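Dear colleague,

Thank you for sharing your sequence with our group. We've completed the structure prediction you requested, and as agreed, I am returning the results in plain text so they can be pasted directly into your records. Please verify that the sequence below matches your submission; if there's any discrepancy, let me know and we will rerun it promptly.
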Amino acid sequence: MLLSILEGRIAASSKGCDLSDTHIVLVGRGSTDPDANAELTKVARLLWEGRGYAGVEPCFISLAEPSVPSALNRVRLLGARRVVVAPYFLFSGVLPDRIAAQSHGFAAQHPHIDVRVAGLIGDCDGLADLVIERYWEATRGDIRMNCDTCAYRTALPGFADKVGRPQTPHDHPHDPAHTHTHNHADDWSPAHGRDQSLK
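Please find the predicted structure tokens below.
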């Protein structure tokens, strides 16, 4: 749900632009917890999937790297001519204001790049619906938050046909890792508790 709202904020700030030529810089708050920072990287990848952007670069406004200027410089080096900076924030405040200021500062130094700042997620029906959904999941003991990004539960761009289908394994015939013929059960050594083929 938040991805859809974020996509809408990006679209509103880039009307009339070719998204395939648009890089997104997704900005999170930043944390001293690596796991929390890793979540933003996951969101960036999910935002990129199936939406046709030139790329999505995650970064942080405080406590973690890369910074907003670093991410903007990275997409510049990748050849970006248009960038939408997308704050991954619910509401306004000091940090979103800092994101906008740093983005405008970068734009002033690089006038050949079209830098835009998308709106915040904000108070909207989609966010209210998500809060209500979480409330009902909690009261009914049916927590599904971690399934929100599963292609078999949620219609993600380019993967909508997977919703409701059973998950099945698939083969990678050209992957060298799958050309061997020995039994993986023979690789396990209880004495060492690890895969002996990695020696």
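Summary note from our side: The helical segments are 2-13, 34-48, 68-77, 94-109, 125-140.

Kind regards,
the structure core
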